[in-house]
TrEMBL record:
Its EC number is 1.1.1.100. Belongs to the short-chain dehydrogenases/reductases (SDR) family. It comes from the Bacteria. The lineage of its organism: Bacteria, Bacillati, Actinomycetota, Actinomycetes, Micrococcales. This is 3-oxoacyl-[acyl-carrier protein] reductase.
Length: 236
């Protein structure tokens, strides 16, 4: 349980991030979400932040610390996609996705870790993707940014592991979101055939794993990659 903990979820206004924030609220945590637009779920503090801009993150996190207290759990979830095949991928298509998905995690975790070091307790949870280790045509930028989170979490574990701070990666597969709902039924069926579980996950199934990683039960787990993908990425 995460009762009373101060939690920040980046990109917590929709999709998986929103489900994670709602789950922490249900467990009694004090939850803030960062968003460029929109609001987090009921019971959360929403602050505006752009994860590609360290100054913007600093202002947002200072506000969270003033309102809720020192940040104890950070969930780096904010991410974008700009899918296209390598030969059509522009420099900006690559750089902007890496700057948001990987650079964003760097900036957010760097800022949050200061309070964690002082408290000698912290949970860093990075939301990756099955694609990070499995690969996906048309997603060289996205897959690179998501697999980079694994090296990030493992290096952070080596740096901060003795200070009561863990860093783990959650790698969701296909999740029921607005994005997957927009796919043609044929395409959805094709994807489901490749997933041993035979279905997409709910965002709440990802949220349950994230809140568990933030709990005392997971204190001895660090540098791990936990797939929530119905068996799609086995062996990766």
């Amino acid at each position: 349980m995460s009762s009373g903990r101060v939690v920040v979820v980046t990109g917590g206004n929709r999709g998986i991030g929103r489900a994670i924030a709602a789950r922490f609220v249900a467990e009694g945590a004090k939850v803030a979400v960062t968003a460029r637009s929109g609001e987090g779920p009921e019971g959360t503090l929403t602050v505006r932040a752009d994860v590609t801009d360290a100054a913007s993150i600093n202002i947002a996190f200072s506000e969270i610390e003033r309102e809720l207290g020192p940040i104890e759990v950070v969930v780096a979830n904010a991410g974008i996609t700009k899918d296209t095949l390598l030969l059509r991928m522009s420099e900006d298509d690559f750089d902007s996705v890496v700057a948001t998905n990987l650079g964003g995690a760097f900036r957010v975790v760097k800022r949050a870790s200061k309070g964690m070091l002082k408290a000698r307790w912290g949970r860093v949870i990075l939301i990756s993707s099955v694609v990070g280790l499995y690969g996906s045509a048309g997603q060289i930028n996205y897959a690179s940014s998501k697999s980079g989170l694994v090296g990030f979490a493992r290096s952070l574990t080596r740096e901060l592991g003795s200070r009561g701070i863990t860093a783990n990666v959650v790698a969701p597969g296909f999740i029921e979101t607005d994005m997957t709902a927009a796919l043609a039924e044929e395409t959805q069926a094709e994807y489901k055939r490749s997933i041993p579980a035979g279905r997409f996950a709910t965002a709440d199934e990802v949220a349950g794993v994230v809140t568990w990683l933030a709990s005392d039960d997971a204190a001895y787990i660090s540098g791990a990659v936990i797939p929530v993908d119905g068996g799609l990425g086995m062996g990766h």
